[in-house]
Amino acid sequence: MTVQRFLEPRSLAEAVQLGTEDPSGAKLIAGGTALTIMMLQGFVMPDTLVSLGRIDDAGFRSISVTEGRVRIGGGVTLTDVAVAPEVAANLPSLAYACAVVGNTRVRNVATLGGNLAEADYASDPPSVLISLGATVEILGPDGQRTLPVGDLITGFYETALPDGAVITAIDVPVTPDRVSVYEKFRTRSSEDRPCVGVAASATFAGRALDDLEVVIGAVAATPQRDPALGDRVRGAELDDALARSVAAEYRRDIEPMDDARGSAWYRSRMIEVLVRRSLRALADARDAEVDA
Ligand SMILES: Cc1cc2nc3c(=O)[nH]c(=O)nc-3n(C[C@H](O)[C@H](O)[C@H](O)COP(=O)(O)OP(=O)(O)OC[C@H]3O[C@@H](n4cnc5c(N)ncnc54)[C@H](O)[C@@H]3O)c2cc1C
Fold first, then answer.
1. Do 25 and 91 fall within a single domain?
2. Nearest CA residue ID for atom 36, ligand 1
3. What domain range includes position 141?
């Protein structure tokens, strides 16, 4: 089947309406970097494409900082996230994760909403957004709702998005003094998707941990985390011994997959290495603040 119609709605509401009129035949398209490959490979064969390229709703293609949150429109490109001063100042791990996606040509058109909706396990931004407690705003046939990014991605290329629903924005809380890092490990080329991605963020009271979040991407269908980690380490000092024990726990508890980027055995060991490295980076950032 070839594409019969290419529709260019001007509003998000119209896009949802067009996308839900024919849920089996219509597909939203933003940057097209993922969808066109899936179409060329025959994985999806929409007869109608509903483009998000001409939406002019306020905020869909812009970034703003309000009430302790950074709001990134679902149609903002990864390049624009990577270079935005508001993101660099408040969410440096997200700026970095977007800056190391694929290559310049991809980042210049690929959108953050499209990256999340694609739900490819070997992606960079989702684990970082989960480590920062981000939520997505969704506009669907039943109206608007908000969902944690961790609940949006439900499996291999599967999301909790209703048919035709649009990710209108990504909201990331800005916690004063939170430090965050992202470690991307590639095995095939400098432009490749991650073999393992580790996103970590923490807040401290002096040298002691107040909160800690570690999320592993690209090793299983969905990003992996230990939801009890923050409570367990609260009040402890983030030193080398703690970094080693958290890293060993993540290696023990995560069952990684095999794929062309690495075997399960290899990934398992790299999870331990990268978690330890991420936690050392958080401790260095803490020391720089405490000693300043
Ligand atoms: C060569 C190459 C290298 C890559 N390397 C990396 C990498 O290193 N790391 C990484 O994380 N990713 C990587 N990617 C994936 C890339 O990040 C995604 O393809 C891109 O972010 C998808 O965004 P898009 O706007 O192009 O989405 P599209 O291709 O337009 O759409 C993707 C899917 O999302 C849906 N969709 C799009 N926008 C929305 C929205 N706002 N709301 C709801 N549904 C929507 C579409 O219907 C479709 O199902 C790479 C891709 C390529 C081609």
1. no
2. 114
3. 63-173
In-domain check, residue 76: yes
Strand (E) or helix (H) holding 162: none
The count of structural domains within the chain is 3
Q: Are 164 and 197 in a shared domain?
A: no
Cα-to-centroid distance, 75 and ligand 1 (Å): 11
Is the pLDDT at 156 greater than 90, yes or no? yes
Q: Are strands 166-173 and 135-140 parallel, antiparallel or unpaired?
A: antiparallel
Residues having CB closer than 6 A to ligand 1 are 27-35, 37, 52, 74, 101-102, 106, 110-111, 113-115, 117-118, 123-125, 161, 166-167, 193
Pocket test for ligand 1, best of 16, 28, 51, 103 (most atoms within 8 A of CB): 28
Q: What pLDDT does residue 1 have?
A: 58
- pLDDT digit string (tens) for 169-225? 999 999 989 999 999 999 999 999 999 999 999 999 998 999 999 999 999 999 999
Cβ neighbors of 214 (< 8 A, separation 6 or more) are 131, 198, 199, 200, 225, 226, 229, 246, 250, 275, 278, 279
Mind listing the pLDDT tens digit for each residue in 106-143?
Answer: 999 999 999 999 999 999 999 999 999 999 999 999 99
Which residue out of 101, 157, 186 has the highest number of ligand 1 atoms within 8 Å of its CB and is therefore the one to mutate? 101
Ligand 1 mean position, distance from CA 39 (Å): 13
Q: Please tell me the pTM assigned to this model.
A: 0.97
CATH of residue 13: 3.30.43.10
Domain identity same for 287 and 192:
yes
- Residue 254's alpha-carbon distances to 1, 151, 270, in angstroms, are 41, 19, 12
Query: Using CA atoms, how far apart are residues 20 and 265, in angstroms rounded to an integer?
Result: 43
- What are 67-101's pLDDT values in tens digits? 899 999 999 999 999 999 999 999 999 999 999 99
Residue 56 resides in a domain: no
Residue 58 lies in a domain: no
